Amino acid sequence: MSPLFRRGDRRTPQSRLVTLIRKPGCHLCDDAQGVVEKVCADLGVPWEQKDITQDEELHREYWEQIPVVLIDGAQHTFWRVSEERLRKALT
User: Fold this and answer.
1) What is the model's pTM?
2) Which of 24, 58, 68, 89 could lock onto 78 through a cystine, CB 3.0 to 4.6 A?
3) What is the number of domains present in the chain?
4) CATH code of 55's domain
């Protein structure tokens, strides 16, 4: 487990960062973005997206898993994003 994210972490949601790794034209990525946008807006969590086609390292690491969601740099999930699971991980 990443030193940035540990079970039982008591940081506030606003101090977290969600990263969505995606690519253009990916319907699963669009679905994931909808979930990330909703949960992050509800909780006041900052989020960013990164295009796997623009970053060789991300492409090498995640190309078979996109979309991928990271929380504070640690992989949270891939392919299908559960609103309930993401919300729980951030609170």
Assistant:
1) 0.84
2) 68
3) 1
4) 3.40.30.10
